[in-house]
Amino acid sequence: MTGKTASDPDPQRAQRADAQRNRARILDAARTVVDEQGTQASLRDIARRAGVGMGTFYRHFPTRDALLQTLLCQGFDRLSVKADSLAAAAAPEEALMEWLRDFTAGSTAYRGLAASMMTTLSDESSPLHASCLAMREAGARLLKRAQDAGRIRADVDGTDLFALVNAVSWIAEQAPSVAARREHLFSLVMDGLTRRP
Amino acid sequence: MTGKTASDPDPQRAQRADAQRNRARILDAARTVVDEQGTQASLRDIARRAGVGMGTFYRHFPTRDALLQTLLCQGFDRLSVKADSLAAAAAPEEALMEWLRDFTAGSTAYRGLAASMMTTLSDESSPLHASCLAMREAGARLLKRAQDAGRIRADVDGTDLFALVNAVSWIAEQAPSVAARREHLFSLVMDGLTRRP
DNA sequence: ACCTGAACACCGTTCAAGT
DNA sequence: ACCTGAACACCGTTCAAGT
Predict the structure, then answer these.
(1) pLDDT tens for residues A131-184?
(2) Which fold has domain A10-62?
(3) What is the number of alpha carbons within 13 Å of residue A57 lying toward its C-beta?
(4) Which residue range or ranges hold the HTH tetR-type domain (chains A, B) (predicted)?
């Protein structure tokens, strides 16, 4: 125990008021710019729009992934939770499909997101690594359940499924003509994984 | 008719000796650097390695696509020809699969190639547009043939097939763990397109 | 005709100097 | 503690000056 009393704010969270405000401004700007330019958005543009020096930007978010984490982490965690509640509530195949629908909607929220997820999954030092991996594992449990029920091919694992779904999301970003057929491509792939009676 | 005689070299092809040598050097360097860095390789690096000024580089290849064209066009054309000869020689499904095998091998030759092909297909001003489109159309004819023979789902078109195959090639570039499963992902997708008896 | 390399407008990242 | 903005090393692209 130190001299710290109950009324002291948590030292880990204590921040000067201007620092807190700058952080919020950066995040606001980031949401806008990433929305426009995708996950590879210019960090300078974000700092500029936030009205903040580059040093301030880097002090708050030392890497691009640190910034993306605060934008994406919530969504990843939400999908992890949703997978588990679907596992308890819905039929195996329907649960998986419903989850994938939700996942795909999220993965097309920002341009470049599918690519960022793949990068973050193979980079253990990324602050997004853990939550993205947890989300994939949660999806993998839904997959396993559908496989055990005999509804999905047995020779597919969570990595395969995640890769295929991200591959479709990515390709849809590459050309408007493909984007228009995204749902169709998605169902072609999922039909292929489904065991027909 | 102008004063041009038969012994004049083709004025369109006439080039000073140093220009011809520089062009060859740039292409040599490009092959090496694109091999190392992918289709998004630094153009400066290529010019440097070729021992040539930036102006010279741009004089010979005014855009990145103009450079890629000379590296990739032959391969595209070869695959177009191969599609037509397979259509004449092999059973519909086998012909399609053999062609896709060949196509995939080519599309993984350089990192970023799948992305470049998608870009070039939606950019009519790209010098690669025509030959890439021709290749896709040649593949589409093999697809149609296999569909007419009842071996492939009827609700797939050449754009879908091309998109799916490129999506798998791209995803395999994103992580070594996925690269190791590339063949498996490819067969999952193709199985899905195949009509089972 | 062709080549060169500096110049320009951008990046991401770091860091000395300020408050 | 935190902020600023210049500095550095890159990039793609253009262009005046040379031969």
Answers:
(1) 999 999 999 999 999 999 999 999 999 999 999 999 999 999 999 999 999 999
(2) Arc Repressor Mutant, subunit A (1.10.10)
(3) 21
(4) 20-79
Length of chain A: 197
Using a 7 A cutoff on CB, list residues near strand D: A 15-16, 18-19, 22, 51-56, 59-60; B 41-45, 54-55, 58, 62-64
Does A64-193 carry CATH code 1.10.1740.10? no
- The CB-side HSE value for B21 (13 A sphere, CA atoms) comes to 5
Helices (H), A38-128: 43-50, 54-60, 64-89, 92-107, 113-121
pLDDT band at B3 (very low <50, low <70, confident <90, very high): very low
pLDDT digits (tens, 9 = 90+) for B112-146: 999 999 999 999 999 999 999 999 999 999 999 99
- What is the residue extent of each domain of chain B? 10-62, 64-193
Q: Transcribe A136-159 into DSSP letters.
A: HHHHHHHHHHHHHTT-B-TT--HH
DSSP H helical segments within chain B, as ranges? 17-37, 43-50, 54-60, 64-89, 92-107, 113-121, 129-148, 158-174, 176-179, 182-193
B149-168 residues touching A, CB cutoff 8 A: 153, 155-156, 159-160, 163-164, 166-168
